Amino acid sequence: MTAQYAPAGTQPAGVPAQYPATPKEPTMTDLHLIITPPEPGDWHGRLDVLEALEAAGWVGDAEMPLDIVRHPSGAVWAVTNECDDSAMDCPNGAVIEFPSDVPSVVIIAACLAATHPTQ
User: Fold this and answer.
1) Looking at beta carbons, which pairs linking 83-88 to residues 24 or more positions away fall under 8 Å?
2) Helices 104-115 and 47-55, axial angle in degrees (round to 10)
3) pLDDT at 5
4) Is the dihedral angle over the CA atoms 53, 55, 56, 59 positive or is it negative?
5) 8 A C-beta contact, residue 73 and residue 115
6) Could you give the CA distance from residue 115 to residue 37 in angstroms, rounded to a whole number?
7) 26, exposed or middle or buried, with CB in 10 Å at 0-12, 13-18, 19+?
8) d(CA 27, CA 48)
9) How many Å apart are CA 53 and CA 102, to the nearest integer?
10) Which residues of 79-90 are buried (b: 16+ CB within 10 A; e: fewer)?
11) Neighbours of 58 (CB within 10 A)
12) How far is CA 84 from CA 12, 74, 99, in A?
């Protein structure tokens, strides 16, 4: 079998497309994350994680909106102490703990992955 490549829209008649369109599961919109490091002496806690998750559809808790966010899937992420440790309760019941030295982007990626499982 030989692969034939042609620019989009110029596939020769009678030659099947190399990658036919397949139905896709619904996907979330692109999340463009820009984390600005705080100036020396400034403390933002995990506000960057909170803002990124809210941008991805998570909702701040009614009683503690700056510490806890919830996803419609049932996942919950929260800051667990004043040292910036945090944790996520996953929809499947697992709990993932993030010590304060875990980079924000890792926490955000884990939260997004837990709420958008693949088949």
Assistant:
1) 84/45, 84/46, 86/46, 86/49, 88/114
2) 30
3) 41
4) positive
5) yes
6) 26
7) exposed
8) 23
9) 16
10) beeeebbbbbbb
11) 24
12) 58, 22, 7
Q: Token pair of 26, please? A: 């619904």
Q: Which amino acid is at 117?
A: P
Q: Is the pLDDT of residue 41 over 80?
A: no
How far CA 23 is from CA of 17, 53, 102, in Å, comes to 15, 27, 36
Adjacent-strand bridge partners of 98? 86
The per-residue DSSP string of 16-72 comes to PPSS--------PPP-----PPPPTT---TTHHHHHHHHHTT-EE-SS-TTTEEE-T
pLDDT, tens only, 75-116? 999 999 988 899 999 988 899 999 999 988 899 999 998 887
Q: What is the pLDDT of residue 4?
A: 41
Can you say how many angstroms the Cα of residue 57 is from the centroid of all Cα atoms in its chain?
10
Run of H or E residues at 95: strand 95-98
